[in-house]
Amino acid sequence: MGLEYTPYTPFKRYKLEIAYDGSDYCGWQIQPHSPSVQEELQETLEKLYKHPIHLIGSSRTDTGVHALGFVATFLTPEQPDIPAENLMKVLNRRLPQSIKIRSLTEVPLAFHARYDALGKAYTYVLNYGPESPFSARYSWKSCHTLDPEKIKAVLPVLTGTHDYSSFVVERSAIDEAVRTIYRIDYQEFGHFGCLTFVGNGFLYKMIRCLMGTIEAAGAGKLSPADVKKILEARQRLAAPETAPPNGLFLMEVFYDPARLEQFRTAALPFTC
Q1: Do both 55 and 174 map to the same domain?
Q2: Residue 173 pLDDT more than 90?
Q3: Would you say residue 95 lies in a domain?
Q4: Is the same domain home to 211 and 145?
Q5: Is 81 marked active-site?
Q6: Cα 63 from Cα 34, distance rounded (Å)
């Protein structure tokens, strides 16, 4: 795979680990007439380099979805040659509070943020307690009383290698709906329940679609056998509605097999 086109001779490739509050953005990818994280960051980089800069992201996130460890790369021109440490400091001064660079390192020119990724981890936050203006921004308060034991009972059904057509929006736009979810961890932090999905890749709105079904199971509307039938139906209309985006966080993108195996959510994502 060759390098992406640049109007200058590529000098270095920088890899950025980005955290962002997705509440006010249409997602990562640039969209016409809507603010995006990619656009905000590219415009900031272009002012520094005085050249067009194109960021390649590890994936896309939906409108309103957050990230703690989104990965993106870009190729730099030879001049100005800004050291990684200095660039990270400048970016974090100039970017809005809703976007911060957590790390910035040089990687080989051939490195690809998306195609070299081994997997990803997402965490979805459910709020079992009282709602507040702050919890509403980063978690989902269901209108039903949810039983954590019923939630945990359906997670093994959804884990493994499956055709997840029942849990994807715009199935006709996807060639292949088979993915592998290595595990779904359930943890509680105070009155919040966190479900962490670790897999080799996820389809468009797949986790939010899965969470709609998991929430219905937690409310006692679906049994593990019902969820299995929904999965095997391979039809989006067989499953409940899609969960809202505000409870979803992209936690990490994995390039190291050991890190993928070891990853666990250590705290509520919005307190990290």
Answers
A1: no
A2: no
A3: yes
A4: yes
A5: no
A6: 10
Residue 1 has pLDDT above 70, yes or no: no
76 and 198 within one domain? no
The span from the CA of 168 to the CA of 250, in Å, is 17
Residues 28 and 100 in one domain: yes
Judge whether 260 lies within some domain. no
Q: What are phi and psi of 189, to 5 degrees?
A: -130, 105
- Between CA 168 and CA 176 the distance in angstroms is 11
CA nearest to 193, candidates 248, 127, 137, 247: 127
Which residues constitute the domain of residue 244?
119-254
Catalytic residue among 62, 185, 226, 256: 62
Kindly state whether residues 94 and 128 are assigned to the same domain: no
Q: Is residue 269 part of a domain?
A: no
> What pLDDT shows up at residue 171?
75
- In whole angstroms, how large is the CA radius of gyration of the chain? 19
- Asked whether the predicted pLDDT for residue 181 surpasses 90, the reply is yes
Query: Of the candidates 69, 68, 63, which has an alpha carbon nearest to the alpha carbon of residue 28?
Result: 63
- Omega of the bond leading into 83 within 30 degrees of 0 (cis): no
Domain count along the chain: 2
Residue 260: pLDDT over 90: yes
Residue 172 — very low, low, confident or very high, per pLDDT cuts 50/70/90? low
Name the one residue in this structure whose structure tokens are 């490195």.
Answer: 111
Give 89-114 pLDDT, tens digit per residue. 999 999 999 999 999 999 999 999 99
Arithmetic mean of pLDDT, 190-217: 97
For residue 187, is it within any domain?
A: yes
Predicted local distance difference test score (pLDDT) of residue 71? 98
Same domain, 174 and 94: no
Beta-carbon count within 10 A of 144 CB: 11
Residue 36 to residue 44: CA distance in whole angstroms: 13
Average of pLDDT values for 188-192? 97
